[in-house]
Design a protein that fits this description.
The chain is of the alpha/beta class. It has one domain: TIM Barrel (Alpha-Beta Barrel). Helices cover about 30% and strands about 15% of the residues. The chain has nine helices and ten strands. The strands form two sheets. Strands 1, 3, 4, 5, 6, 7, 8 and 9 form an eight-stranded mixed beta sheet that branches. Strands 2-10 form a two-stranded parallel ribbon. Helix 4 links the parallel strand 6 and strand 7. The chain is globular, with a radius of gyration of 16 Å. About 45% of the residues are buried. Bound molecules: zinc ion (2 copies).
């Protein structure tokens, strides 16, 4: 059953039934909230599908591989909503290596691949599309995390064409668009990503990137961009649970 969404930023054209990029206390920073706290909050917020994607082990103070391995035993149906357990992997080098092994990844529901300073080495400004493309081949990789960050430039057109072929989907990250965002050029680059996705007919995932429960489901800075670009509602995965289920399967 799809609940009516209770966020103050509810948008009738782009209803948000799912949020798959969130971090619990196991990410080691920015959250004191447990998985249980977060699922309860997601349920109370009106989401129907909720995903925990803690940072991979290369992130300072994040959980060990054994934490991610244990998630296969976790209940997928809690507080009346469907729960998925994934990871926000760190791409650690230009070869597209990530910070969980493929056997562990295979036990998760999905993975997001992201580049974060200071983990990615070398930290430079050359085109990193090939690092993402290689990382897409690891098991359960379904989403590209905040590729808008100009500190790690990519060729959007090229990367998104390959992503479409590989059935991997870009996210639009609310955190990149906040007025105090620490990523660079979020507004301009998210606009470009959305324009290309519209042209390619490539669906996108909207993400709160909530650290803890405080921002679960919050896409408030994304909606103005979607409206400005008249972005097709049918390409927003958060509004289409059956499309999301097909992708995660
Ligand atoms: Zn990230
Ligand atoms: Zn994140």
């Amino acid at each position: 059953m799809i609940n009516s969404n209770t966020f103050s930023n509810f948008n009738s054209k782009y209803p948000i039934y799912a949020d798959l990029h969130t971090h619990s206390i196991s990410s080691g920073h920015g959250s004191e909230d447990t998985i249980t706290d977060m699922i309860r909050c997601a349920s109370e917020s009106g989401l129907s599908l909720f995903g925990i994607s803690d940072h991979g082990p290369a992130t300072s103070s994040s959980a060990k591989p054994s934490y991610f391995q244990s998630l296969k035993l976790a209940d997928r149906d809690r507080f009346g909503i469907r729960v998925l357990y994934g990871a926000e992997l760190n791409i650690i080098n230009t070869a597209g290596d990530v910070d969980l092994d493929d056997d562990t990844l295979s036990t998760l529901d999905y993975a997001i691949i992201s580049i974060h300073p200071p983990i990615f080495k070398p930290y430079h400004d050359k085109d990193l599309s090939s690092a993402y493309i290689r990382a897409m081949d690891h098991p359960k990789v379904r989403f590209l995390g905040h590729i808008d960050d100009a500190r790690f430039p990519v060729d959007f057109e090229y990367l998104l064409e390959i992503a479409k072929e590989k059935h991997v989907y870009p996210e639009i990250n609310n955190g990149s668009l906040m007025p105090d965002a620490y990523r660079i050029n979020g507004q301009e680059n998210c606009r470009r990503i959305l324009s290309i996705c519209k042209k390619l007919d490539l669906p996108v995932l909207l993400s709160s990137d909530s650290h803890g429960k405080k921002s679960i489901g919050n896409m408030q800075y994304i909606f103005p961009l979607l409206e400005e670009l008249d972005f097709p509602a049918h390409l927003v995965l958060n509004s289409d649970l059956s499309a999301l289920s097909d992708i995660i399967r």
